[in-house]
Amino acid sequence: MDYKKTNAAPTTISRDIIPLMEETGNLYESVVIMSKRANQIGAEIKQELKGKLEEFATSNDNLDEVFENHEQIEISKFYEKLPKPTLIATQEFIEGKVYWRNPAQETAIED
């Protein structure tokens, strides 16, 4: 997913919990869904950042030759400015872009 084009707020905001409950009927289930999605988003962003920063990795471990790479600094600053994964996951949940299923409920219906 392209996190650069997300509608998520860049900072934490207070939210009304009633709309979060409407999808599942249970606030705690909604929070679990959003937290699992936030973990997925965080892992994706971390993997993407690691891949971009590997381009700048050097095999030289000499501390005397440490230099600043401005491209690497700009990439790091960009990822620092992105909304937190929890905010992105919450926005996706509110917009209905998160798919989930509850296997416990599916087995109860089949019985």
Descriptive notes:
The structure is a single chain. This protein has 111 residues and is mostly helical. It has one domain. 57% of the residues lie in helices and 0% in strands. It has helices at 18-22, 27-54, 70-81, 85-94, 103-110. The mean pLDDT is 82.
Summarize this, please?
The chain contains five helices and no strands. It has helices at about 20, 25-55, 70-80, 85-95, 105-110.
Shape: elongated
The quaternary organization reads as single chain
Strand content: under 5%
What's the total count of β strands?
0
Supply the number of structural domains.
1
| Mean model confidence by pLDDT | 82
What pattern of helices and strands is seen along the backbone? HHHHH
Q: How many strands, which pairing sense, and closed or not: the largest β-sheet? A: none
Unreliable parts: none
| Percent range of helical residues | 55-70%
| Structural Rg | 19 Å
Q: How many helical stretches?
A: 5
Structural class: mainly alpha
Span between termini: 37 Å
What are the key terms here?
elongated; single chain; mainly alpha; 5 helices
Task: Give the helix/strand layout.
Elements: H1 18-22, H2 27-54, H3 70-81, H4 85-94, H5 103-110
Helix pairs in contact: 2-3, 2-4
